[in-house]
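== Protein entry: sequence and backbone fold ==
=== Local backbone shapes as whole numbers ===
==== Amino acids and backbone structure tokens ====
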Amino acid sequence: MATTLLGLPGLRVVEVDVEADGGLTVYVVTSDHDARCPECGSRPGWVKDRVESTARDVAFGDRRLAVVWTKRRWSCPAADCGRRTFTEHLPALGHRRRITTRLRQSLAAAIADQGRDVAEAAAAHGVSWHTAHTAFAEQVDPVLDQPPAPVRVLGIDEIRRGKARWRTDPDTGITTQLADRWHTGFTDLSGDQGILGHTEGRARADVVAWLRTQSPEWLAGIQLVATDLCAAFRVAVRAVLPHAALCADPFHVVQAANRMVTKVRQRLVREHYGRRVRKTDPEYGIKRLLLRNIEDLTDEQFDKLWNILADHDHLADLSLAWSAKEDLRHILDLRPNRSGTCPTEAEVADRWDALLAWCQANRHIPELANFRQTLTNWRQEIFNTVLTGASNAGSEGVNRIQKLDARAAFCYRNPTNQQRRARIATLRSKRRSQIVTRSRKRRVVEPQHVPG
């Protein structure tokens, strides 16, 4: 009965002691005699000695459990074998291990699957931080070290590693930046591989260096690359993946338009009042409404926005800039996942030309003129986004997981550990989907082939 309750294959319980602190010490011996020399495979000759090995095991209820294994040291009868003696070993308790295999698996599962901090998991299992982290690394590194499967849509996005640090000179008052470290992550947007890898930094050379480490066959399978409006990423993708279509993330495109509208509002307020906006000013009541989607506004909110823009002459430029932002969203609404149909390049070009003509007619607004130049620079990337429906939302989602994981760990000191934890955290949903009922698949519109 005690052997069955212990549940360690190959070991038989001979005695159980209750310690003063309530813990259990279980004394076991090997239950079978099928021992082989690990070097030559010969059957053992005779028992030369007996040694005891103590290992920590998973808790038995609320009691900590220690296993004392009395092992036999055998002599090898083969004359040509270089190993004269050997000790029994079992998979349940590895060679020279001080914790059982199932305890190591429990530690790895607590950190990888449950998202618990290493220090918390170590304290709960009664082991040191280094023991828990080593068990976690041994479990996940073979999975993460495997070459990535083919990827059709690749996402590239950066994430800040901690906060930027600054130092102010007490004599001159000049502030200089001491550190501002970034990680660039590469995400599988068309599959369930999560983050494929990281590189430290967010410059063009950093992205190119990571892509160059992949096989030419894997790079040739990438058809689309989604990024934000980062010129360094664009140059790197065009250098390494000239055959792939680069797509500008629609969220960041609209974000650039919202920033343009905000800059126009702030400038007009300063010119009209000579100060920043206050709660008593009409511009204060619409500063959030200007950034909302027009279809999400209630009738009351739309009437408020429209009346304030129409009743105040000094806000004429703001009305023009806001219209340009909504025209841009009107173009992005042609995406297959928004409209339900695949747009043609002519349809996108018609709306695009109308938007640029509007910006050109109102080029007296400096912010709108700069925004027009930004649109011109990213024209092909935005067209690819509208035609294919691709976005970098998957990268933003895994970035959120990375931030939550780092917050739970109270930040990281080692970049390698942070990248390991971030990558395995993004695969958590994939591992859970293998043991739960699969969700129903949704039908999507087949994206149109990207021109060029």
Remarks:
- Confidence is low (pLDDT under 50) at residues 441-447.
